[in-house]
């Protein structure tokens, strides 16, 4: 039906006319269809890309290396204390007044050096009296011998009885005994005079004086006598410590319980600068603690060390032996187990349970569970999971710098430390 114009509509006014809607062009409908089809295609394309299968990432790269093989010496680390090899409490052997002091507090003294003087006059007088007693007994003895000689000459004429001869002989014997007693008293008085000068019995460092000049001091036995001062021998010194029963057994089986080298460092030292030799092990273990007391002799020529100082010591618990070492950072912990991750030729990761030893300059000693041909993951352990595949990259475990060795003729352990030998 043809579309009517407005003018034509008016001409037909009053007549029944059918009016139809004006038709749209066909190209507009086709445009809408194309737009809808494009939207559907775009949606299918976008949704279809999300359904594509994900590409597997490449295996992670880790660094592997064979364990380092070296000879090590293991040490037992203990804490001990220096003690004087000899210590003397100086007490007077005679009583009297102190008249002079011949040392400075804290100085080093030599054996035989005068330290105190006690007033010698009373003892000199007693010595003179004893010497006079010798003269008297000698005179009496001479008279008794003369009488005996005269009597012996009269025996042949029967002018003297045998009993008189026996009496005269007894007088001579008594006189000889009296002379010996008088001589002993003189020696005793001479000792008293000698003891009025108190001398150092040993060489060492002296403490401060406990009495000043002018004080009366008393002689006596033990603690009953007045304490004048103390002297400690400082060269050599003893270093005493207590070791466990396990350490005692190891050192004894290795033959190191006597004359074994000992290295010591003080609290403010990083290196073991002091060296000694084990010279004494007690004859039994303490039943309460299960430890045994031992000591080492340490030279102290310059007197730097002092009794009472603490130190950390190490004692070789065995001879040098070969060991495998890995970086301590490569060790994994699974509850109570210690693990190392190794990679086979196919790049597959496996976990090996190992028994560990001490740390040597950042490298951990592996006692068992690892072979020298294993390739241990030393870098990238966080990306290596047991059973997974990795891309191994060859690395190398570098030997640490040689640890300082004790300065002794023989090169020098609970093992807590170790040093690389050679």
Over all CA atoms, what is the radius of gyration?
53 Å
Strand portion: 25-35%
Q: CATH homologous superfamily name of the largest domain?
A: RNA polymerase II/Efflux pump adaptor protein, barrel-sandwich hybrid domain
What string gives the helices and strands in order? HHEEEEEEHHEEEEEHEEEEEEEEEEEEE
CATH architecture of the largest domain: Beta Barrel
The CATH topology assignment of the largest domain is OB fold (Dihydrolipoamide Acetyltransferase, E2P)
Mean pLDDT: 82
- Given helix and strand content, the structural type is alpha+beta
Model regions low in confidence, pLDDT < 50 over at least 5 residues: 1-22, 403-415
Number of helices: 5
Biggest sheet, open or closed, and with what strands and sense? 6 strands, antiparallel, barrel
Euclidean distance between termini CA atoms: 116 Å
Shape: rod-shaped
Domain count? 4
Q: Please count the beta strands (DSSP E, at least 2 residues each).
A: 24
Strand order of the largest sheet: 2-11-14-13-12-15
- CATH classification class of the largest domain: Mainly Beta
Q: What helical percentage do the residues reach?
A: 25-40%
Can you describe this structure?
With 422 residues, this protein is α+β, with helices and mostly antiparallel strands. The chain has four domains: 6-50, no CATH class; 62-71 and 320-420, Beta Barrel (conserved putative lor/sdh protein from methanococcus maripaludis s2 fold); 77-85 and 232-316, Efflux pump adaptor protein, beta barrel domain (Elongation Factor Tu (Ef-tu), domain 3, Beta Barrel), CATH 2.40.30.170; 93-230, OB fold (Dihydrolipoamide Acetyltransferase, E2P) (Beta Barrel). The chain is 26% helix and 32% strand. It contains five helices and 24 strands. The chain has a six-stranded antiparallel beta barrel. A hairpin with a 7-residue loop joins strand 12 and strand 13 (274-281). The longest helix is centred in the first third of the chain and has 34 residues, at 121-154. The chain is rod-shaped and about 185 Å long. The termini are far apart. Residues 1-22 and 403-415 have low confidence and may be disordered.
